Amino acid sequence: MVMIAEFTGRDRTALLPLLLLGDEDITQVRSYMQTGRVLVAQVANRTVGVLLLTEIDDVTVEVKDLAVTPDMQRRGIGSQLVAAAKKRCVPGQRMIVGTGDADLQNIHFYLQNGFRFYGVRKGFFKQYAAPIFANGVQLVDMVMLEQFI
Questions:
Q1: Which residue among 10, 74, 94, 130 is buried most deeply as judged by most CB within 10 Å?
Q2: What pLDDT is stored for residue 10 in this prediction?
Q3: Which of the 8 DSSP states describes residue 90?
Q4: Rounded-to-integer distance, Cα 105 and Cα 122, Å
């Protein structure tokens, strides 16, 4: 059984390996890992998923990072984390998320979870220390998706 809870610890470094599954650039992850709210998914006392949600302004929150361990993917855990994050939002609030332009699995996942396209952050991944690839294609732009709660 999957348990979703808010991470209440002060030291989030234990979550770093999971956060790096969702965003491979350690500099980027370190820049935001201590911000916002963190939800964790646990199975048999093992943390298998994480979602980091930051407040952009009074009406917008952003999913900065979402990851599930490879052995637990495709079991609905990511969707449960997104649903739990939505429950913590104020009705009418806008939730946004960005993912790589060639990361078709992530795009499909977010569409299935109610997000819709609203923009592109051109050249976003050029700031990363090393190139990131999805489906054999180097990520360049970040595709932005949104939904209203």
A1: 94
A2: 85
A3: P
A4: 20
Total domains in the fold of the chain: 1
CATH number at residue 141: 3.40.630.30
CB contact at 8 A, 140 and 125: yes
* Pair 101, 67: CB distance under 8 Å: no
Q: Quick check: 54 and 12 in contact, CB under 8 A?
A: no
User: What is the distance between the alpha carbons of residues 79 and 7, in angstroms, rounded to a whole number?
Assistant: 18
pLDDT tens profile 50-106 = 999 999 999 999 999 999 999 999 999 999 999 999 999 999 999 999 999 999 999
Q: What are residue 107's DSSP bridge partners? A: none
At 18, list the tokens: 């999971």
The Cα–Cα gap between 49 and 22 comes to 10
In sequence order, which residues have a C-beta less than 8 Å from that of residue 34 and are 6 or more positions away?
Answer: 12
Task: Cite the DSSP H helix spans in 23-98.
Answer: 26-32, 77-87
Domain with 132, as residue range(s), is: 2-148
Who's near 140: CB < 8 A, 6+ residues apart? 101, 123, 124, 125, 126
